[in-house]
Amino acid sequence: MSRFSVSLSLKMFLFGLILLVSSCKKDPEPVDPDNPGQEQPGGGGNNGTSSLPCAGKDLKIQSFLFTLTEDASGEETGGDLVDEFPECAKDDRIRFEKSGKISGSEGSNVCPPDEEPDTEVPVPVNSLWSYNAQNKTFKMYEEGKANEAVVWKVDEVSSSSLKISITEKSEGYTTKIVLSLKQ
Question: Which one of 1, 27, 165, 180 has the minimum C-beta count within 10 Å?
Fold first, then answer.
């Protein structure tokens, strides 16, 4: 097996591990659409939530950085997963609809059916988002599963970009993911 294959296999394994760890994070306060005091999809609640400035715009993944650190030794592994995306997936778009839904589309460089990329950022069907400007948090979850939301820290947000991060500690490792999206 070539060094490139091993490196790519390791990165794909770490990518899968990171997604698994981050998708298991539980939201301590379930979002209840029947309670107007809580966050609503799209940030429509009245508890400090507000509309995401870049909502309704097609955003492209600029970088998808991950770092895995072994807590005992401090040894780090990681990189930018966008570098591993096939060329046909690098111009795909994500849209955070003002209604709170998440949608996506292929860019002009469409992947052939027989070359479907396995490195895309998964967006589950019926995904929703909420944004809380006061707490600087961004949540993504499947409809009906708000108590399983993945809660990201908002590092930067503007009318044309969003940069969010998440850090998880588990079994002697610290995982950090930083996702940067731009119009």
Answer: 1
